[in-house]
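I would like you to sit down with the record closing this message with an eye to the fold:
=====
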Amino acid sequence: MKEITVVMPVYKVEKHVSECLDSIINQTFDCFECIIIDDLIDTGSRISSSTKSVLAAGAKKVYVAATHALLSKNATEVL
């Protein structure tokens, strides 16, 4: 089976992230990687929870990209 790459932007779509993750989880493919793109990483919680959910859904690899990583609080531990 071919590997599929899912690109998931998470900037200013907090209310839709869980719906997007549910959609990924409910797919029939079992060999995929995910690229999560966020404009701003502050505490790292959104990226961390999204990454954990995608890995739990069976992603083989997860990549994260951010245009502005302004790490605060315990973001380095979270990430």
In short: Residues 55 and 62 are 7 Å apart (CA to CA).
